[in-house]
């Protein structure tokens, strides 16, 4: 049996897999377009790049996909340039906007004005219901297994049924999903599809430095840290996470005021930029649970092929 179809607004990808929008600079045009070309839904992260740089990334992705497939943009609500990032993406005609780390009522109005579907990242049935009422085309349910900023301590498996019961729009499961069997488990709980970030980092097309990808292969697990935005986050342990543990501060050389709210314990933009460029010891390496299952760096198309095979095998042996 093949994977079931997923439909969100006008989008009907070949496989019900959405690639996570990972900033800073981890998922840009190369990764997003590769996922789209392989039959999934690609996402460019608008975090940590200027609106003009985002426009260029979108245009490159469109060129790589020859105008086919689906490309969206992730806009982090916590960023000060949130509105400018969203509008730049919509003006470039992206297939959808996805947003987390808070909900903006305005973004749904902007989506209607530009005829662009808006997808919310939520962590409860209550937030999912609110998102649908405001106009969300779908919701991504992110559990504590996800990498990066987290809005809950609950597992996606616990939250998912609650959200599925609360809304009538498509529900996408996210957090710790690594295999075709994981996808099957999420669909069995009522999800319409899944979002995967960590597995797509260790791919040839991922926009991060090779050292960043290699760190995923070497990781034996993840740990929790506190982000300067006031939310917990999941990352791979290194010298940087040790420095900031228990409130430890890291000197900020230059503040670019990228966040609406920041504790100034350290500069998260600088920490993410360092890791993206290859300094995986002194930078922040966000990752989801299950990173220890990543054993090789392969093309995106091979990841999708494996997911299909694992999904089919899981159904046969279930």
UniProtKB/TrEMBL annotation:
The keyword Flavoprotein applies. InterPro entries: Aldolase_TIM (IPR013785), NMO (IPR004136). CDD domains: NPD_like. One of its GO terms (molecular function) is nitronate monooxygenase activity. Keywords: Dioxygenase, Flavoprotein, FMN, Oxidoreductase. It comes from the Bacteria. Pfam families: NMO. Nitronate monooxygenase that uses molecular oxygen to catalyze the oxidative denitrification of alkyl nitronates. Acts on propionate 3-nitronate (P3N), the presumed physiological substrate. Probably functions in the detoxification of P3N, a metabolic poison produced by plants and fungi as a defense mechanism. PANTHER family: 2-NITROPROPANE DIOXYGENASE. This is Probable nitronate monooxygenase.
């Amino acid at each position: 049996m093949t994977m079931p179809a997923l439909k969100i607004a006008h989008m009907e990808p070949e496989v019900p897999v959405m690639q996570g929008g990972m900033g800073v600079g981890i998922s840009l045009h190369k990764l997003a377009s590769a996922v789209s070309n392989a039959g999934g839904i690609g996402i460019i992260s608008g975090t940590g790049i200027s609106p003009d740089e985002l426009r260029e990334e979108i245009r490159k992705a469109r060129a790589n996909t020859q105008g086919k497939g689906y490309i969206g943009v992730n806009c982090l609500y916590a960023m000060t340039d949130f509105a400018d990032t969203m509008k730049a993406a919509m003006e470039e005609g992206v297939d959808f906007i996805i947003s987390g780390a808070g909900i903006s009522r305005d973004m749904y109005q902007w989506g209607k004005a530009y005829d662009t579907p808006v997808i919310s990242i939520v962590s409860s049935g209550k937030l999912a219901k609110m998102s649908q009422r405001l106009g969300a085309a779908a919701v991504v349910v992110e559990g504590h297994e996800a990498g990066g900023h987290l809005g809950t301590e609950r597992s996606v498996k616990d939250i998912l049924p609650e959200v599925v019961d609360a809304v009538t729009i498509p529900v996408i499961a996210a957090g710790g999903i690594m295999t075709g069997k994981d996808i099957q488990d999420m669909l069995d709980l009522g999800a319409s599809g899944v979002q995967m970030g960590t597995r797509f980092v260790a791919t040839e097309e991922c926009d991060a430095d090779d050292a960043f990808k290699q760190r995923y292969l070497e990781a034996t697990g993840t740990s929790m840290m506190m982000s300067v935005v006031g939310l917990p986050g999941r990352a791979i342990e290194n010298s940087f996470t040790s420095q900031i543990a228990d409130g430890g501060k890291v000197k900020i050389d230059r503040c670019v005021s990228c966040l609406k709210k920041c504790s100034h314990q350290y500069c998260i933009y600088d920490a993410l930029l360092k890791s993206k460029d290859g300094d995986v010891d002194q930078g922040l390496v966000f990752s989801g649970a299950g990173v220890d299952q990543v054993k090789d760096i392969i093309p995106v198309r091979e990841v999708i092929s494996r997911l299909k095979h694992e999904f089919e095998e899981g159904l046969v042996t279930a």
